[in-house]
Amino acid sequence: MSETVRRERFEQAVLPHLDAAYNLARWLTRNEQDSQDITQEALLRAFRFFDGYQGGNMRAWLLTIVRNTCYTWIQRNRRADRTELFDEEIHSMAVSGGADPETQVLAGSDRESLRRALEDLPEVFREALVLREMEGMSYKEIADVTSVSLGTVMSRLARARTQLRESLSVGLSKET
């Protein structure tokens, strides 16, 4: 098969899942620039091994590569002291959509609380929750991506949801 045909087949199969790949990398690394780099590296790995892909769930196959690339990167590059970069979108108070400023502040506060609560979850819980709730993957697909049993996926999701709920309720009780 020519390199052009191979590239076209790869693009048709993988590109529809590019947003999911980036989203997983973003939530695992908690850094936009790192997630872009990791997603690109994962796509290069996927392309390199595309001939070995034997069918099945392309999304799960790709997200497995993204996940492994993330954890390899985190192991090599994560500093003990994590610093939070200024995120213009999160910290922006620009008026949009005609909502009054008070509504925007409350909505922004809710999003920020949820983002912080998600980021505070242990990686395995955050990963399971992102794959299930944000990417809409089935428990079986999550088990395939993470290489754990179905029971472990269900347990991680239950524990993640409990911790998230507790974190958000503690945040609410501090505000009142």
Overview in brief:
74% of the residues lie in helices and 0% in strands. It is mainly α. α4 crosses α8.
Largest sheet: none
Distance between the termini: 65 Å
Task: Categorize the overall geometry.
Answer: globular
Work out the helix count: 9
- Beta-strand percentage? under 5%
- How many beta-strand elements? 0
Uncertain spans:
80-98
Could you spell the SSE succession in H and E letters? Answer: HHHHHHHHH
Please, what is the average pLDDT?
A: 83
How helical, in percent, are the residues?
over 70%
Radius of gyration, taken over Cα atoms and rounded to an integer in Å = 18 Å
Helix/strand structural class = mainly alpha
What does this structure look like?
This protein is mainly alpha-helical and 176 residues long. Helix content is 74%, strand content 0%. The chain is built from nine helices and no strands. The chain has helices spanning 3-14, 18-29, 32-48, 58-77, 88-91, 101-120, 123-134, 139-146, 150-175. The longest helix has 26 residues, at 150-175. It is globular. It starts with a helix and ends with a helix. The relative contact order is 0.11. Mean pLDDT is 83; it is low at 80-98.
